[in-house]
Amino acid sequence: MKFHSTGPGQGRSFRLAEYFDIELRIHWSFAALAGGLGLWVLAETGSLRAVGAILLPIAMVFTCVVFHEYGHALMARHFGIRTQGITLFPIGGVAVLEREPASPAQELWIAVAGPAVNFLLAGLLLVGLLASKGMPSELLSAPSDASALGWLLRVNLLLGTFNLLPALPMDGGRILRAALALRMSNFAATQIASRVARGIAALMIFFGLTRGQWMLALIGTFVWSTAKAELVRAMVRDALEKRQGRWGSSLGRDATQGDRMQGGPIQDHPMPMQGDPRTQHAPDGEWIQPPVRPHSRDSD
User: Fold this and answer.
1) In whole angstroms, what separates CA 283 from the centre of its chain?
2) Among candidates 162, 221, 164, 173, which has minimal Cα distance to 197?
3) 83-125 residue pLDDT tens
4) Fewer Cβ atoms within 10 Å of its own Cβ: the N or the C terminal residue of the chain?
5) Interatomic CA distance for residues 86 and 20, integer angstroms
6) Residues 6+ positions from 17 with CB-CB distance below 8 Å
């Protein structure tokens, strides 16, 4: 789950489908990796069945990832936040929300929704698995039905549990930050959550490199860089909010155009505009003197 005005990599992705008015896309790197893997297996074995045996489990895992991301997106919609799209990458999925949640409580609910969907799916699969064990074997469409249900159950439990690790930008990290932000500022909460995330990322990278788990090391690198980016973003937002607060309280009722341009961030009237009756008749160099007050057309 990401909070961006434009989705990461959406310009380099392909549309797959659309559900609940939310577009589902696949990043080119994922498509290339899956296609390359399929071609390599076909070249090695000459069997389309072998290609299916490799790609089908990948498709099943990412189907669970799609359910997970739609859980985030639909919970965000509940709070009035539109999802620009969901993109599948080789290391997972990203639901891109058009804006950040309005409160820590909203962020917490949105973050919880993804893993909750996986645990719900695991529960449904468990019911199906128990039911299939009680069925006569001739009613099952294939001998491997029960084992497939068990495998998908484990996949959903793993996805839900792994995403609850308290490491930004994973769901557990967002839950941690939201819980902390209920008791402190968002900036302080992000500082703590980012520090925890980078500690977990360092462990991922270490164990991934020392044990040959390259995907774990890659995920750790992603977590480290994204947690750092979250902290930088929070620092910038905190600095802007403090500056704007100081500037807003320092301007009096008779603040002029010049005061606004020199004393704080430009907001809604940074320069004299053509046709502005407050400035168009002022001699050169004196247009900054008129006070900034609402203009009424009745006074023209």
Assistant:
1) 52
2) 173
3) 999 999 988 899 999 988 999 999 999 999 999 999 999 999 9
4) C
5) 12
6) 23, 24
Beta carbons within 10 angstroms of residue 174's beta carbon: 27
Q: Which H or E run contains 91?
A: none
Residue with the two structure tokens 């090391």: 217
2-3/13-19 β-pairing: unpaired
Q: Sign of dihedral through CA atoms 207, 209, 212, 218?
A: positive
Q: Write out the catalytic residue numbers.
A: 69
To the nearest whole percent, how much of the chain has pLDDT over 90? 43
- DSSP per-residue letters across 134-186: TS-GGGSSSTTHHHHHHHHHHHHHHHHHHHTSS-TTSHHHHHHHHHHHTTS-H
Token representation of residue 103: 């409160």
Cα–Cα distance list, 260 to 68, 121, 136, 271, 283 (Å): 47, 56, 80, 10, 20
* Calpha distance 42→25 (Å, rounded): 26
DSSP secondary structure letter of residue 137: G
What pLDDT, in 10s, does the model give residues 29-67?
888 988 899 899 888 888 888 888 889 889 999 999 999
Instruction: List the end-to-end C-alpha distance of the chain, in Å, as a whole number.
Output: 52
Residue 25 near residue 88 (C-beta atoms within 8 A): yes
Residue 250 amino acid letter = S
- What is the distance between the alpha carbons of residues 279 and 288, in angstroms, rounded to a whole number? 8
Please give the model's pTM, rounded to 2 decimal places.
Answer: 0.73
Element (H, E) at 8: none
Query: Tokens in use for 247?
Result: 């500037």
Token pair of 285 as six digits: 């160099």
Q: Look-up: residue for tokens 């930050």? A: 177
The pLDDT tens digits of the residues spanning 244-262 come to 655 455 555 555 555 555 5
